[in-house]
Amino acid sequence: MRPPSYSVSRLAYPSTAGGKNLLYQLPSRLRGAHYSTTPPSPSPGSRSTMPYRYLIGAVAGIGAVGVAGYTWYQMSTMKRVVDGAAAAKARFNETKEAVAETREAAKVKAADVSASVKEKSANIKERLRRYRSEAAQKAGNGREDTGPNEDSEEQRRTS
């Protein structure tokens, strides 16, 4: 035998079917039930501890979620992924710093080489000027030769 099904419409709007009121067809345990729309008033002692109950429940819930999340993190492969990413980032930063140091060392070395080349170039120019001057004196003209490049530079300046 199938239990009777009760719908909200039959309970909200009792009607007559065949001269019988459907409300009386409900079992006696449902007919006498009265439900209040207002919550029961708490006892005076429990009213002061009610906010703490919510706080304790919230803290316990957050703790349970935290423990579950940490356990999942430790047991899953996410820990390995995060550790690998951290190691890769550290290696990248080390490499970037090494490249920066190498670049600075190359700049310093290039500056040293440039200064050395300028010094040697000036030395060679001075030696060439002295050689030309000595060659001109040996040739007997008695005049110090400044060289074709230096004369041409003077001519360019005046023109």
Describe the overall structure.
By secondary structure, the protein is mostly helical. It has 6 helices and 2 strands; from the N terminus they run αββααααα. The protein has a two-stranded antiparallel sheet. The longest helix is centred in the C-terminal third of the chain and has 62 residues, at 78-139. It is rod-shaped, with a radius of gyration of 51 Å.
Supply database-style keywords.
single chain; 159 residues; mainly alpha; 6 helices; 2 strands
In short:
With 159 residues, the protein is mostly helical. It has six helices and two strands, in the order αββααααα.
Secondary structure topology:
Layout: H1 8-12, E1 16-17, E2 20-21, H2 28-31, H3 44-47, H4 50-75, H5 78-139, H6 148-158
Antiparallel strand pairs: 1-2
The rounded Rg comes to 51 Å
H and E string: HEEHHHHH
Number of strands: 2
Strand order of the largest sheet: 1-2
- Residue stretches low in confidence (pLDDT < 50, at least 5 long) are 7-13
Kindly report how far apart the N and C termini lie: 127 Å
Oligomeric assembly: single chain
Estimate the strand proportion: under 5%
Measured as a percent range, the helix fraction is over 70%
Q: Give a quick account of the main beta sheet: strands, pairing sense, barrel closure.
A: 2 strands, antiparallel
Helix-strand makeup class: mainly alpha
Shape type: rod-shaped
Mean pLDDT: 76
How many DSSP H or I helices? 6
